[in-house]
Design a protein that fits this description.
This protein has a single domain, classed as P-loop containing nucleotide triphosphate hydrolases (Rossmann fold). It is built from 5 helices and 7 strands; from the N terminus they run βαβαββαβββαα. It has a 7-stranded mixed β-sheet with strand order 1-7-6-2-5-4-3, with helices on both faces. Strand 4, helix 3 and strand 5 form a beta-alpha-beta unit. Helix 1 packs across helix 2. The two termini are about 10 Å apart.
Length: about 150
């Protein structure tokens, strides 16, 4: 696990852009953290870094927003309102996990359905109101891709 101090929203966006450049179809990125921790800000920056130019609303009420981008679809999934993990099948998550890059806010709501093969990023408040801390759990398939990032900190 690596921990990165993010002094402001620009630093969070830069981290998201770095990870977006390394993401491949089939990757699942689980974004954890309390309300207001920066999960949606991270997702917006990730989508913009991949070429998204449209507005990137939080999918809290729609649960899923798919962005068809040149490098493949990005599935922005917000499971805050999911009542039961089985409801996730109605969202076509199997397509997201197979064909696109999945950004999942509140992945713990999936229970046993959350893919074991995932990059998990936990965002938390930092020492100032604008600061965040990102704790990144590095699974084997991401370790090599993120080696440069780990070396920078």
């Amino acid at each position: 696990m690596i921990v990165i101090e993010l002094p402001n929203e620009a630093a969070t966006a830069a981290l998201a852009a770095h990870i977006a450049a390394l993401a491949r179809p089939g990757d699942v990125i689980a974004l954890k953290g309390e309300l207001g921790a920066g999960k949606t800000s991270f997702a917006r920056a990730f989508i913009r870094a991949r070429g998204g130019v449209e507005a990137v609303p939080s999918p809290t009420f729609t649960l899923v927003q798919v962005y068809e981008l040149p490098g493949g679809p990005i599935w922005h999934i917000d499971l805050y309102r999911l009542r039961d993990p089985e409801e996730a099948w109605e969202l076509d998550i199997e397509d997201a996990f197979r064909d696109g890059v999945s950004l999942i806010e509140w992945p713990e709501q999936l229970g046993p359905l959350v893919p074991a093969r995932r990059l998990e990023i936990t965002l938390s408040a930092g020492p100032t109101p604008a600061a965040r801390r990102a704790a990144i759990d590095l699974p084997a398939e991401w370790a090599e891709r993120l080696a440069a990032l780990a070396a920078e900190i």
